[in-house]
Design a protein that fits this description.
alpha+beta, four-stranded antiparallel sheet, five-stranded antiparallel sheet, 30% helix, 12 helices, Uridine Diphospho-n-acetylenolpyruvylglucosamine Reductase, domain 3, 326 residues
Length: 326
Amino acid sequence: MLRLPPFRYLAPRDLDEAAHMLSGEGEAAMLVAGGTDLFPNMKRRQFTPQVLIGLRGIKALKHTGGSPEQGFHLGAGVTLTTIAEQPVLQQHYNALATAAGSVSTPQLRNAGTIGGNLLLDTRCNYYNQTEFWRHSIGYCMKKDGDICLVAPGSPRCWAISSADTAPVLVSLGALVRLVNVRGERVIPVQELFRDDGMDPYTKTADEVLSEIILPPAAGWQSVYLKLRRRGSFDFPILGVAVALRTAAGGTITGARITLGAVASHPVEATEAAALLLGQRLTPDLASTVAAAASKRAKPLDNADLTINYRKQVTPIYIRRALDHFI
């Protein structure tokens, strides 16, 4: 049986107290909300924080509100189940409801939060193993080692972003609010990520993700497709998020295509999406765009199934996502 390492647990009552606790404890502390990913990682000794600052008691992190016309606000502590079952999101931000409902199992979606999923630690076949397993093959640079076992000659870590909600929120053009003792800042969600498997987020260590802000949904439709070995609960091998805005007559006036689980950050296929602008979506155009977008996916031996299969299936899944709009 894998056991948690020892730690102190702090329970702030509001965001301000959480920010001050995080600032005061420094590098010894980590934040925890649902804990559905953090606690297993701690058991495997990927993380061994001396202090955990629990966010579950902060009411401000659990709010939802707004409208499709004005934009919708989601506290970072809102559960994935709540998002998956929210009628407004199902109707106007369908891809987000779908993505939230595809994460893991019902029990974990009841505990897991949108903020926790968005800030999910990057994953890799050589990293997400027990400490005993990792010790037996030699540690990777993401934890305790000095080389990337996926690409030993590379100076960087290639662990991938496997958060289902991340590519969706990028395609939706969402914003995130970050809070610390010095104040707060609001940034586009894509600016939260960097292409670095070891240090994948621009969020500073003393910041708390407090809120996700969805823009007005007028004219936009979205879809999310997920490929995984077991359809019931696995992490994605590929995630495809597409958002399109159409005018009268079906002409596309806005398009975003974002791929998940193909790099250390959600990958935007901006050049492929641009091919849709000013056009009406047809089967031939969908095939052309899918082929162009799939070039942004360059899978390595860091996830489930073979590299060749993942390459071949990428344009198929992008095409399937686009077919929802035809």
